[in-house]
Amino acid sequence: MTKRLRTVENSDVLSTTISETEIGGKMERLDDLLANVVDETLTQVFKKEGVRVIYDYFENNHHLKREEIAEKPGVFSNGLERLLGSAAPVIENLILKNLHAKLGLKFREKKGYGFSDYVKELRESAVVEG
């Protein structure tokens, strides 16, 4: 069984088919997908050992668990900036590009938008069809 996830952006309807095994029930699916994309992106850049250190840092210093990133993207972004400094926006853009690619969408940078703005927009515009 597959579900269709549709994102509406500037009156263009973008849609892609995503299997339930890739993502799970409406917001949970998008949240899980984001957590997985964060894992993949951080692993590409920092390898597994580095990712463990990063997640430990978030839990110990920002009380943020991996599963909460989609719900608290501002906390994630602020923590990443404190940890990585000027490298944080580069990592955030990699995560966003990978996330949009997994959704079959093109990532477009928007003036004045930060990581949390993009995540909130995706969460608010995601609609699951049966």
SSE blueprint:
Layout: E1 2-9, E2 12-19, H1 26-62, H2 73-84, H3 88-102, H4 115-125, E3 127-129
Antiparallel strand pairs: 1-2, 1-3
Please give a structural write-up.
The protein is 58% helix and 15% strand. By secondary structure, the protein is an alpha+beta fold. The chain has a 3-stranded antiparallel beta sheet. Strand 1 and strand 2 (12-19) form a beta hairpin.
The count of strands amounts to: 3
Indicate the mean pLDDT. 81
CATH class: Mainly Alpha
Q: What's the SSE pattern?
A: EEHHHHE
The CATH architecture term is Orthogonal Bundle
What oligomeric arrangement do these chains adopt?
single chain
Tell me, briefly, the overall form. Answer: globular
Distance between the ends: 9 Å
Main beta-sheet strand count, sense and barrel state = 3 strands, antiparallel
Beta-strand percent range: 5-15%
Strand order of the largest sheet: 2-1-3
Short description:
With 130 residues, the protein is α+β, with helices and mostly antiparallel strands. The chain is built from 4 helices and 3 strands.
Main traits of this protein?
4 helices; three-stranded antiparallel β-sheet; globular; 130 residues; alpha+beta; Non-ribosomal Peptide Synthetase Peptidyl Carrier Protein, Chain A
